[in-house]
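Re: your question from the hallway

Yes, I did run it. Sequences:
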Amino acid sequence: MEERQYDLIFICRPDTPEPDIDKIISTLGHAAAEKGGKIEKTEKWGRKRMAYRVQRLREGYYVFMVMRSSHGEVVKELERRLKVSDAVIKYLTIRVDEELKRQEKLKRHREKRAARRPRKPAAPAAGGSEHAAAQP
Amino acid sequence: MADETPQAPAPHPPPTATGLGAPHAGAPQRSGPGGAPVQGGRSAGSPPRRGKRSFVRKKKVCRFCVEKSDYIDYKKAEILAPFLQERGKILPRRMTGTCARHQRWLTVAIKRAQNIALLPFAAEL
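Structure:
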């Protein structure tokens, strides 16, 4: 099976100390590696106001990760760990590789069209001259 | 028209003697030189349009098409927020002018953002 890419976001309680968050991140990394996945990127967005209350909290500490793996076991394991963790109040895993592929494809298509474009403005000009010829 | 107007007064003067012709002669003369520009102005100018439509609707353009975006990122809540109503509903295409394809992507992005509490499902009371 080809490799898939996932976005992994989780929200910790805002009062979680920074070292604890780093610990969660590193354990997730280990767990992913164990199951054959790989965490490519980790971004700490920090404390943010949530759009609605989760477990009576209005704020949360957001952590965003990009993970690659070739089978779903990794996602299962990571989600299990996030669920068990007390500090984590919300998490979301999204498969993004297909959308990235689509984005790439559209981009290539656009570039190809842009390369071809110089011919395009000539067409309306030719039509205009035809009209001018037809009128008199 | 220029030929007609001088002709019109010429045949009319004889009937003026009867009395009835006098107002008739006056009327065509007025409509002849004055009427032609006025009528032209009515057909091509603003009055009929003012009657039918009071305003011209501005054409809405898909914002994402203008930006030529190939992907709508669910992580950027601030660009998704304008497509939500006050209460948190997703605005329809007819309100925002988004094209079908981008609206489809937008909906998915908004729903993802809602799931991770970047956007509200419904406004809080």
